[in-house]
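Continued from yesterday's entry.
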Amino acid sequence: MSNLTFVLSDETLNSYGFIVKTKGIYLERFKANPVMLYMHERESGVIGRWDNIRIEDGKLLADALFDESDPLGLKIKTKVEGGFIRSVSIGISDVVKETVKGVETVVQCVLNEVSIVDIPSNQNSVKLFKKGGKCVYSLSALDAQEVDLRSELIDLLELDKNVDDNTILETIKNFLKSLRKAENKTEMALRLGLADKAHERMLRTMEQHDPREFDLYIDERRKEQEQAIVTLVDKAIEKTKIIHYDRAIYEEIGRELGFPVLRKLLATLPTAKKPMDMIDGGQAYGLRAGWGLDEYRKFAPEELASNPELYRLLLKKEGKSEDGFTLEWYRKNDPDYLLNNPDIYERLLEKQNNTNT
């Protein structure tokens, strides 16, 4: 098989401008798996192996044994034996370089594979491999900062250094899901009153491009709103709108539905009455002590409807007169009162008709 012996490498200057020292080539890894590729393309598969690997006169030699069961291996073997292809190229990594007599020189390296090539840089054509398998041609390219994607992801996601790949992938999936929910989270913040509508665009931008900062911002607003909710409930208790036993319920409403909803709810609640206000002994001239026209309309409309004198008394108490309200006014501002007091409605309607005629 002497005709299939190749010089894998020697110490002549190649077309890339550097020399590979033969004694500095680490061969043990390659000898354990002496694969032969075509044009350094792993995707094309192994087309053979190298046997009888040795160093003679400062040159690295080996004999080619092609895999004839592989179509590409058989094809390349035919071309080599026919003299159409005569060149090889070594693929090396873990390079240590020095400048020797003004020439860049690889003084140490690891041999990974040897390929049959169509056009070498010379008889010792070289393919340089960086960590991760990336190929370069110049020694200077080896100095370029190599980005370790896995390490970069771990740092960006703030994961433990010893995390496994499945956890990295799961964290990325969750992150992408959170991005897809960005609009809902922004709308939730607006609905709960954690931010003003005027800040919507800012919130959406922050949510999409800096979700961590968005969460911090919302957390701060939640803390502020929590204090506002407590203060609002305190005032409601002070005004006897609610009793202190119900504090937790209203605070929960504020947290779940938002400060604006709680504020509206408490504003609609009447001031709680003392027990004496709710019994006959608290009545004076037919009035429930402390009750005005609004309380009667809300809590005892039937009593108001059945007692015209009471209605007029309440109007007088509030500095108003029945004649001061037109039918149109009631229709716009207090239609329920007209519904519950048909006699008053008829009187006002008759008055309006007489005025129109």
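--- second protein ---
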Amino acid sequence: MTDRLDKVETIVNRLTRRQNKKMKAMITPYPISTCVSGEDVEGDILKYMFCAPGRIVKGLIYLSAKPKSGASISIRIDNDLGGSTKSYIITRKSLLVEPDIVISSGDRLTISFHNVDEVEKITELWLAFMWIPEIKDVDIKNFLIDQLEEEIDAGV
């Protein structure tokens, strides 16, 4: 009888150790980006609608030339409650911003660009923002190590 209990205890201990070996896969933020080219880049340069809540955490703006008199970029969120706007002054060829804007499902993003110097023209503008959806809208999978190896072998 004790041999049998010892075997059961050994199996339970092995299974318990296996249960503690878990990994989590993190989902990266979603990039929202565009490039606008032309003789004179001006006005609304990006429009985007969000299907899930989250936050816009970081953005990078790159211009074809350094604006001599400065330029401005506006980040506007429109929704049923009204909305909000954040504006930034650009005095270099590139600018990193951290707007930390809370997004709700159905919010609409409009990014506008305005060059102060009407003689000098900006011919190309690159724009990229990172949007992180709320955790409840992200697919997080918990794996046992054996399951993770099977998923990798299956090409998932």
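The chain is about 20% helix and 45% strand. The chain has a mean pLDDT of 84. Will compare against the first tomorrow.
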